[in-house]
């Protein structure tokens, strides 16, 4: 699949085969692989003692570990990384998986949000782990903005776009807001928002507030600035990540340690912190990227692996990403082509709408 790492190249044929079969066995069953099992599957006939010596050497290199007092071995995080980089054989996308993804994408008659929600459900269903979909920013021009006070600490901003798309976003307004200051802020924004997208409105707001400081009272200015922060950062990130299939992860945890790691993952998903990193992870390289264990910056505490790929619009600009997250013993050879194909199809669907 990829370049062979120097450590893999330094191994002799027997060590490579023992290492590969241990990792493949672990990925398939989740259980340690012992020397007696390997004597029945290796291409050359060697004794269990010889295999144990090879396993000890691989453990010394940091590629294998011995869980508890088991005589079997499992790959370490370094071992999984070496396997993925040097020995992983990526299969072709099966006709069944391709059909399920294509059927879920549908005809493209509904909006992008609904289509991407279905993509997330399809990915989690096909892979039997949790899926993550980072949706693109809505870049249509803004037609109208309205603020609605819900309580002293909660307010709603209603965004109506020129293409008919409507978004409702909750936020915390600055202290002391009144209905009149909210109306004044909305009037101010509507006067400058026509033809602007969310990406461009923030800069326009900043310039207009400086130019027209005397025309808008302090409370309304604070509200406008609060709204600008919401659109560009927190609110948008909280709404742009679609997570589906969390129950798949919970069902995989057979031991107390697994459950604790999964709960940690759930906490990360619920907080949705550092969502911008999700897209950054995908943007750092072409095609599908695999992050194992602590390499997974977004969910580093969960002991999980993330397989992620960006998707592009008609201008070949990266605007979002799709991926799956699950235990480190994912079936990488099957999941990589699924994520890759899904990202390509999502990009095609979005490009066809523009």
Please tag this protein with its features.
Heat-inducible transcription repressor HrcA; HrcA; transcription regulation; Enolase-like, domain 1; 354 residues; Beta-Lactamase; 15 helices; GAF-like_dom_sf; 3 domains; stress response
Please outline what is shown here.
The protein is 51% helix and 16% strand. By secondary structure, the protein is of the alpha+beta class.
What does this structure look like?
Residues 228-239 have low confidence and may be disordered. This protein is 51% helix and 16% strand. The protein has helices at 6-10, 13-29, 35-39, 48-60, 77-86, 95-105, 112-127, 179-193, 198-211, 218-232, 234-240, 246-252, 256-271, 275-283, 332-352; strands at 64-65, 74-75, 130-134, 142-149, 155-161, 166-171, 241-244, 289-292, 304-312, 318-327. It starts with 5 loop residues before the first helix and ends with a helix. The chain has 3 domains: 6-86, Winged helix-like DNA-binding domain superfamily/Winged helix DNA-binding domain (Arc Repressor Mutant, subunit A), CATH 1.10.10; 95-129 and 245-352, Beta-Lactamase (2-Layer Sandwich); 142-237, Enolase-like, domain 1 (2-Layer Sandwich). Strand 9 (304-312) and strand 10 (318-327) form a beta hairpin. The chain has a 5-stranded antiparallel sheet with strand order 7-3-10-9-8, sandwiched between helices. Strands 4-5-6 form a 3-stranded antiparallel sheet. It is an alpha+beta fold and 354 residues long.
């Amino acid at each position: 699949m990829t370049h062979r790492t120097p450590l893999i190249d330094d191994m002799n044929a027997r060590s490579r085969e023992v290492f590969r079969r241990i990792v493949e066995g672990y990925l398939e069953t989740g259980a340690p692989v012992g020397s007696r099992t390997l004597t029945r599957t290796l291409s050359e006939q060697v004794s269990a003692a010889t295999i144990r010596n090879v396993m000890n050497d691989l453990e010394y290199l940091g590629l294998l570990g011995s869980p508890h007092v088991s005589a079997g071995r499992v790959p370490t995080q370094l071992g999984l990384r070496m396997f993925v980089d040097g020995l992983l054989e990526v299969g072709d996308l099966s006709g069944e998986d391709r059909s399920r993804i294509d059927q879920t994408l549908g005809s493209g008659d509904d909006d992008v949000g609904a289509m991407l929600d279905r993509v997330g459900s399809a990915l989690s269903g096909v892979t039997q782990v949790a899926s993550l979909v980072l949706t693109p920013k809505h870049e249509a021009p803004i037609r109208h903005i309205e603020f609605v006070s819900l309580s002293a600490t909660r307010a709603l901003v209603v965004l109506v776009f020129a293409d008919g798309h409507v978004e409702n976003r909750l936020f915390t307004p600055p202290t002391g807001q009144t209905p009149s200051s909210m109306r004044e802020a909305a009037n101010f924004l509507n006067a400058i928002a026509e033809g602007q997208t969310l990406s461009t409105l923030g800069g326009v707001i900043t310039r207009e507030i400086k130019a027209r400081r005397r025309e808008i009272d302090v409370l309304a200015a604070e509200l406008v600035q609060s709204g600008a922060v919401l659109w560009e950062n927190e609110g948008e990130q909280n709404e742009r990540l679609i997570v589906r299939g969390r129950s798949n992860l919970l069902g995989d945890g057979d031991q107390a340690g697994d459950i604790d790691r999964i709960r940690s993952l759930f906490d990360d998903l619920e907080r949705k912190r550092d969502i911008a990193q999700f897209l950054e992870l995908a943007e750092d390289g072409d095609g599908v990227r695999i992050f194992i264990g602590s390499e997974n910056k977004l969910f580093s505490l969960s002991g999980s692996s993330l397989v992620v790929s960006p998707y592009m619009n008609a201008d070949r600009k990266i605007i979002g990403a799709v991926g799956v997250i699950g235990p480190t013993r994912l079936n990488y050879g099957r999941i990589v082509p699924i994520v890759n194909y899904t990202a390509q199809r999502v990009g095609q669907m979005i490009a066809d709408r523009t």
